[in-house]
Amino acid sequence: MVTTRLYRAGKLVKTDFPVAEISDYCEEKDATVWADFTSPTAEDLAAIEEELGLHHLAVEDAVHDHQRPKLDRYDSHLFLAAYAVRLDEKTNELHKTEIKAFITPNAVVTVHPEGFDLSPVLQRWDANPDLAVNGASFLLWGLLDVVVDGHFDTVQQLDAAIEAHEDLLFDGKNHGNEIQRDSFELRKNLVQLRRAVLPMREVVNTLMRRDNGLTDPEMVPYFQDVYDHVLRATEWTESLRDLVATIVDTNLSIQGNRMNLIMKKVTSWAAIIAVPTAITGFFGQNLRFVGFATEWGVWLSTGLIAATSVTLYLSFKRRDWL
């Protein structure tokens, strides 16, 4: 499935035209073309490869998945690989969508799998018609701005989830392995997010350089704004990783302290029970001793049991062992 757009002098004048017409429009001075391919094969991209003179290595990277976020420079174009991320609020699972793009002075060609929603990108373009005169730089900015905003939103969601886990640590309830399991999931999501966010610093920084030949000088401040968001998302991701590690360590410490309290109470009660056991064992000897076979001997043993038990209980209570 292919979607196309044609801009002339910053105005959208035509949509959904054949791929074969792209090279003709690119020869016009004020024309900018956008083409979008959904889950294409190498054969599907053969036409656009010929139309724009794309390098075969870039086309090969566009077809194969699991590329590292990067910006490769070729003689006639740039090749971008990036990841759009989204956090499922129900399952807390991080979804990554690989997006590739070919950037020439007069055209931007995007490649992505099915399921990626392009409407935010189109809305970003349509909401800034005054910037459309900057051609391919404007289209690339709109795409990266949406992708990086998605990174930032995901970091905020993960931050909120981590704060909720912090509250669970000290609510006084026993959550079993819930905190450990969820902390592991959060840490895994942050690792995946870091792989998508961290390389974007180099990507956007390269686009801000004036020697790349494709970035319009008027768009540099807008790419600078995207770069600022990338830095904030990267730093936030790194701090959240440290925070999750702290939560895991704190939870283990709390569990250890709780176990120590339990063992202290169990040991204290065992000591209280041991004294009556010793007394009854002594008075249960099959030998003659003071109070043997007398009524006052029974009361003596009972009194000793009660006195020693109460004394031990009060002593342990004062030491906060019970």
UniProtKB/TrEMBL annotation:
It is found in: Cell membrane. The chain crosses the membrane at residues 266-284, 296-316. It is a multi-pass membrane protein. It holds the Pfam family CorA. Belongs to the CorA metal ion transporter (MIT) (TC 1.A.35) family. PANTHER family: CORA FAMILY METAL ION TRANSPORTER (EUROFUNG). This is Magnesium transporter. The lineage of its organism: Bacteria, Bacillati, Actinomycetota, Actinomycetes, Micrococcales.
